[in-house]
Amino acid sequence: MAELDISTKNCIVEQEGKTLIVTLNRPEAKNAFSPEMLLGMYKAWRRLDEDDSLMCAILTANGDTFCAGMDLKAGADGDHGSTEEFMNLMGEVPNVHWQALLRDNRPSKPLILAVEGYALAGGTEILAGTDIRVAAENATFGVTEVARGLYPMAGSSIRLPRQIPYCLAAEIVLLGRHVTAREALDWGLVNRLVPAGETLAEAKKIADQIAETGPLALKAITRSLREIQTDVEESQAMLQSDELANPVFASADAKEGMRAFKEKRKANFTGN
Predict the structure, then answer these.
(1) Tens digit of each residue's pLDDT (9 = 90 or more) over 124-133
(2) Residues identified as active-site
(3) Is 90 helix (H, G, I), strand (E, B) or coil?
(4) Which NCBIfam families does the annotation name (predicted)?
(5) Contact call for residues 173 and 222 (beta carbons, < 8 A)
(6) pTM
């Protein structure tokens, strides 16, 4: 696995085959967000979009806590430890922090989450911006901002009711209570549970399956899942879906996929 030059002290970015692996790396502070971490995540998501050799990304973390969200100790003192590079980037991209946290401008390819331990506040907020989620049996989730007199600005009050039943989303954001891994699975907040220590390996298995798919189809289906909301009238949603589907069916990859099926061989997709 090769570490990329966009890594930062608090966010390690590596490439393994067609997969980008993004690792939060501030275990001494329970992986609470820092400017260096946000910078690394922002760069990773933009690289995922720009590099045609990449098919998906895995977001994981070092240490026994996935992410505690915003660094409340630094926030209370007004000391965020911003680096010059991060401040310069903020001048060019004012919403860089929201892009890093997958609220704005999500990359156009699937995002797989691998969670061990606690994922609280922003740690669960970023979950709602991912597509496929693997959790360890010891994982704990929760959007706890309300308990601190704060608002979950990374989008949980908007996204969670669209992803799980409304009353369960309301319980998460209004009570700020912790949600066990088993509850998260039962509620549809995560896809699968694995023993502690095995989430990254499981996420890589999913990434390997994604790597075998057609790149154009993958991006179009990802957009459909994210952009065509369930409150859109069905006939209108179908028209939006057709707009995404038509270029895929006209592509060389579509012809190659059907030809490979007929010839009983593995498809050689080129992204064209």
Answers:
(1) 999 999 999 9
(2) 125, 145
(3) helix
(4) PRK07799.1
(5) no
(6) 0.92
Single-letter amino acid code for the residue at 232: V
Cα gap 24→30, rounded to integer Å: 10
Compute the C-alpha angle 264/269/271, nearest 5°.
Answer: 155
Those residues with Cβ within 8 angstroms of residue 178's Cβ, 6 or more apart along the chain or in another chain:
120, 140, 141, 142, 144
- CATH number of the domain at 2-211, please? 3.90.226.10
Nearest to 196 by CA among 83, 65, 94, 72: 65
Q: Strand locations in the chain, DSSP E?
A: 2-3, 11-16, 19-24, 56-61, 65-67, 111-115, 118-120, 132-136, 140-142, 179-180, 192-194
Specify the 3-state DSSP secondary structure of 245: helix
For residue 18, what are its two tokens?
């067609």
